[in-house]
Structures
1.
Amino acid sequence: MSLIINKIKKYVDNYLRYAFIIDVIVICILWFLNSNFSIIDFQQNDKKTNLDLINNIIGASISLAGFILASLTIIVAIRSNIKSKSPEQAETPLELFFSVGTFKTIVKVFRIAILELVICFVVSYVIWMISNNLSNGFIFNLLVSIIFLMSVSTIRSLFVLFLLIDVGE
């Protein structure tokens, strides 16, 4: 059982290290497979509905980026109040958590999530601005990709945040 848990931890660590690249690769693979083998039968909306969804995504992506930025600010503030100690000298779970180098990983995960959400915002806004020149199918593909990217970046950030909360208790 311990071997399985260690493998899962290794996969999670690798995913967190290369999150953005893996997310983009997954999106490309899914669209390739779906366009060639029709794995998922997406119900395409009309162009007006897709543009309404993009308007919602523009607001949601900025709101989520702000939430993650606020979480990162709180984590940095907590870190600044904890003395740097080696793992052997740590007296509390938070001191141990911040002493083993995971602080940089936490910051990196949140930075990547903020970057992904800002990219989602910019791409959504550009799509909305030039929507008259784009086909509905292309807009729909980008819409699904953006929703996927927003979802995984938010879930990843919440995963790390909940790990931090569990350590603090």
2.
Amino acid sequence: MSGNTTNLRMHLERHHNIIVKASVKRNAEESTSQLHVKSSEENVEESCAHSSVEPSSSLSKQPKVTKQPKVTTAFDKQMMFKSGSKVSECDQKLMRMIVDCNLPVHIVDKESLRDFIRSLNAHYAPPGRKKMTELIEKKYAYLSAKLKNTLSALDAVSITTDIWTDTLNTQSYLGLSAHFTEDNEFKTAMIGVHALNNSHTSDNIQVWIEEILNEWNLKNTQIMAVIADGAANIKSALKACFGAPKVLHCFAHILNLVVTGAISSESLITDLLKKVKNVVTFFKHSVNAADALKKETPLKLKQSCETRWNSTYYMIQRYLKVHDYVIKILCNTKSAPPVISADEVEILQEMTSLLEPFEYATKLVSDTLYIENLVDRTPFHSEKIDRPTDKSTGGYWTHYKKKAQQTNEQMNPEDVHLNELQHYLMMPTEDFDTCNPLVFWSKYNNSPLGKYAKKLLSVVATSVPCERIFSKAGRILTEDRNRLSPKHFKEFLFLSSIDRDNRDFCNS
């Protein structure tokens, strides 16, 4: 039999006639069904066309026709992440972004953000506002509990405190931050933000501080020192809580008082600073003068702030850099303030030399990690202040460096039966540029002197860390979040103080 279809068809009709008839019948039924469907579609189209020409009064009574979703949409919905590690990871990263960028929680309900997230991962449905609030509360509970366990195991913790006022809601808050050493690292954590609803008396402040310490399971015996500014009510409350020996005045505030007191005592200096401030104010308010300065230099003039002495230093420093341009512009501008003379410029230059070591010290002690970063700072040389001298004799740490360079081969502390302090004093001095105090004392964890040294290293010099955290508070309590409750504000502020590299933040 040949391979054409005619022979096959004739074979089926002769020997398999029943199968052929059944197949013909089935094809006829399918053709009839398709004809009915096509006729129905034509009737619908005709009806719709007729309705568009002659609208019926009963159109509103017609049942609403729901659009059938596309197959791809149905599949995408089924493939959405419902739960699991991937959903948790995405939720945590989204929460971290909200905390880091000080965004309102309701941003997760914004359709534009949800569209953006869908474009990145079509299978992830971001949580709504309520769910995100719950995630933030759970994260605060998890991390705060972890920190409480860490603090409870420490022998020494130093505390900084400050009071901050939310101007949007006229609400004051008392803040406490804890400072401690762990694994040869200096660490800081915001441990309490208490809404102040009564007058800020020393008795009330004492009660609020004790409430925060109880909440974090911190005992008085663990507190090595408490650092605050010179406000009388705060100092009185701290002395009642911890005893006068543990209360330290913020060193940065002391420097501020010293410098501002010295400046205000000399009328010649105060008058000169007023002239500089007037020049800066003129350029801040005059568009033409500001534009002229922009054409000459990208540097802008800086204005001083009465509460921060170093802002005066920065104002003078910047003015001296652009002095020549400023003089040129002022001489060609009507109604300009009096110019700074050449003699006055010399006085300003001398002032910067005198104020530079104070500025260096302020920046150094205001650094949260100043114990670790101390070795990375270039010492300020005293010849810049007083008179030209040999550089090897200048600087804050000259005595230490000279001692480190001296070697005494006859010194053998291990053979000398002296007390531990004398033993330490006779040890060779460590290299200042490479030694980290925390690492050094970790070698002597079992000795009484080593343990006491580690306690002392937990003490910070200023209350700036607490003030710095409260500066974040101003970016959290904005117009978009002015209805944030004190409870949620505390949670946001705590989470924002957590180190970005802290892996625990992105764990459930």
3.
Amino acid sequence: MAPRSARISLEWAKSLVGLSMKVPDYWWDGCKGYRLNDGVIDSYDIVEQKWNLLLNSRDDNDRYLMNYTAVSTYADSDSSTIDEYQLPFAAIYDGDDIIDANNGVRYFRTPPSEWSKVELEDGVSEGGRTIDPIEWTGEKEEPVNITDEEIESLKDSDGEIRYEKVFEWLLPRFGEDNNETLFDWQAARMRNYMRKKEVEDGWKPKYYQRR
């Protein structure tokens, strides 16, 4: 007898019902447009192992089967309820709640009924643990060429200096007045290269739309 293929976790699959979607025209066979169609995951088809998409349209009451790749790709990331859904990189299959660490230890996922949600207090905009700065243990402190204004730009609303802002400040800058960030510079180089490929080689990227 041929081995049975893994089945998507039914509990997790049904938890995606109600997920808001924005699906482009080109997802449908024979369509090439880029208009986004609002919809919602209406139900889960156990036999097909796919989800039913219902569009928010009075003229279309059909259900369209979507695999998980399509569901996760076209989920409405701007929806106010997006954080209520578990959207991992790949679908969750039966047995995925058990992880073998290959060292004789097996880890089991806690049942969703026992999960707890971290509620932020009023006025608190960020969660997570606090990381204290590493104490300087060197013999000599080197001066940092930074202005008071730049120091202020590294702080958040609570006056704390944020690591990600320090990291960005350390990156090289470009332009006559150093007003072009590394990311802007890299994006400009990529645009130039893609334009060269289009003009000289006749190449166009997938899902490309000229405006």
